[in-house]
Amino acid sequence: MRLNDALLGAILLGFAGWVWWLTTFFPAFPGQDYGPNLFPRILAVGIAVCAALLVLRGLRARGGLLVLEGWARQPARLLSFLAIPGAALFYILASDPLGFIPTAFLLLLALSLWFRARPVVALPVAAGMTLLVHWFFAGMMRVPLPRGLMDPFL
Amino acid sequence: MDPLIQALGLVFDPYVLAVIAGSAVFGMFVGAMPGLTATMATALLVPVTFFMSPVPALGAIVTATAMAIFAGDIPAAMLRMPGTPASAAYTDESYAMTQKGQLNLNLGVNLVFSVAGGLVGVAVLIACAPILAEVAINFSSYEYFWLACLGLTCAVFMTNADPVKGFLSLFIGLLLATVGIDPAAGFPRFTFGDVDLMSGINFVPTLIGMFAVSELMRGAVTVDAAGRMVAQEVGNIFRGVGAVFRRYWFNFLRGSVLGTAIGALPGAGADIAAWISYAVSKRFSKEPEKFGTGHVEGIVDSTSANNSALGGAWIPALVFGIPGDSITAIVIGVLYMKGMNPGPTVFQENPQLIYAVFTIFVLANLIMLPLGWAAIKSARQILRVPKNLLLPVILLFCLVGSFAMTNSLYGVTLMLVMGLLGWFLEEHGIPVAPLILGLVLGEMLEQTFVQSMIKADGAAIEFFTRPIAGVLGVATILIWVVMVGRAVRRGMAPRAA
User: Fold this and answer.
1) Is the per-residue pLDDT at B463 higher than 80?
2) Do B407 and A91 touch (CB under 8 A)?
3) Of A77, A138, B89, B293, which one has the greatest count of Cβ atoms within 10 A?
C-alpha cells in the first residue's frame, strides 16, 4: 500500500502544523529565551519543509493517489497481514482478563493454524512455547505477567 | 593493568560465559533464517538483557550480532536468500559459486574471513577508542552538539534512500524524543495528560515494533511461499581456504580496514560496508570480468568488511555516545537504561567495562569459528524450521519483551503503534534507521543545543569558535550543502525515475 507523495506530503504538512499549534500552549519562562518550545518548533519546520518537497514532487509525477500491491488485493494474504497487528490487539485486550497463559496459547494456536500449520504440530508447539516463555519471563526474570484466570493455579 | 585483570574477571565468569554461549546460538539461528535480521536479534535480546548487569548485557549483544552477520552468509550461499541485509551484496556471487559446485569453499571462505575481519575490526577499536577518548574528554556542549548533528546527518547521507525521506524519518525520530518531561524546564510536552507518556516514548518497545513487528507483518504475507530444499551436501569447508588467503590476503586487509572505517562512520553499518567493499573489489580487480560468475575475490573483500564493521561501529558509540549503526544505537539505549552515559568519562570511571567489551569482542569472534562450523553443518535443519510456527512465536517474544519494559500494557500498545508506523514508513521508502538514531540522540541533541544557545546568548558564531567544534560544524554544514546540491541537481535533471 503506497500513498502518492503529494498526499503523504499533505498529511505530514498537517501534522507539522498540528505540532506547531501544540507548542503554542507551552509556557514561556521570563528571562529565558530558549524554552521548551524551541526544539519541537525547529523539528516541525523541518518536517514541513520535507513534506512540501514531497507535495511538489508528487504533483509533478502525478500518478494514482493510492497504489496497492498484488497481495493487498488477495483477501487471504491481506488477512494474513492483518493477523499480526490483530493478534497484538487481541493480546492487549485479553491478557488482563484472561491472564497470560490462556491468551498466549490461544494467540499462538490461532496464528499458526491460520498460517496452515498442521494441528498435530501446532498444538504442542503453542502449549510448549507458552509455558517456556512464561517460565522464563515470569519465573526467571520476575516480570509480572497477568495471571487472570490462572490465578488460583499459579 | 589493574582494570584489564578486573575486566577478565568480569568476562570469565561462568554466568557471563553462559550468556555469551546462549546468545551466540541465538544469533546464529536468527542470522541464518532469511527474513530475520541482526538488528531484529538485538531488538529481541534487549528485554532479556534489561535484567542483567552491564557486562553480560553487552556481551549478549556483541556476540549475537557478530554471529548473525556471519550466519547471514549461509542461506545466501545455499538458497540465494541473504539471511541478513549485510550479506545481500554478495548473495548472487555466493550462489553462483554453489552452482559451480564450490559450496564448501564458499562457506569456508565466508566463515574464516568473517572471523578474521571481525578481529581486525576489534583491533582497530582497541587501538583507537582510548586515544579518541583522551581527546573527547575536553569536549563541551558545542562539540557534542555538532557531533550529534554530524552523526545524524551521516545517518541520512549514508542510506541509499532519498535524502528528503531520510531527513523526514530523522525529524520524526527527534520529535518522538521530545515527548515527555522536557530536559531544560521540566515541562511535560505532547503527553495529552497521559501518565505513561510523561516518561517519554520508551525506546525498547519502539525498537521491537519498528524492527520486528513490521518485519513480521511483511513476512506474514509470504508465509505460504514454500521454502526450497538445500540440494548439496556440505563436506570439508576448510579445504582450499588457505590457498584463497595466500592469493587474496590484500583483499582481506583492504576489506577489513574499509569495513571498520565505514562501520565507524555514524549511520553506516555492516550492510553498507559490504556493498562498498564489493564494489571496490570489482573496481580494482585484475579480473573484473569474473565478478558475478562465482568468483571468490569479491566475497573475500565483502565478507571481511561486514564483520569488521561491527567493531568499527562501537568506536563512536563508546567514545562519544554517537551510534555508528542501528545496532549500536540499541547499545547506547541499553547503556542509558543501565544508568551509564556512554562517552569519554566511561573510559576514566569504568575502564574495566571498556576492557570487558574488548575481551568479549575477541572472544565472540574466536568462538565464531567452531559455532559457525556447527551452524553450517546443521544448516539443513535450521533452514527447515517452518515459518508458520516461527512467526507466531516471534510475535509472542515481541509482546512479552515490550510488556517487560514497562510492566504494563503501555509497552505493548506502543510496540503495536510503532510497528504499524514503521511498516507504513518503509512502504513509502522512508528508512526507519534514522528515526531510531533520532530517538536515541534526541535528548542529547536538544540539551546540548539549548545549553549552547543559552551560553552563546543566541550568537551563532559561538558554535564555531572552539577549534574542534568549528571543524565539526563546518564538516556538518558541508555535508548539508552537498546534499542540497545533489537534490537540486536531481530536481533539475529531466526526470528518469
Assistant:
1) yes
2) no
3) B89
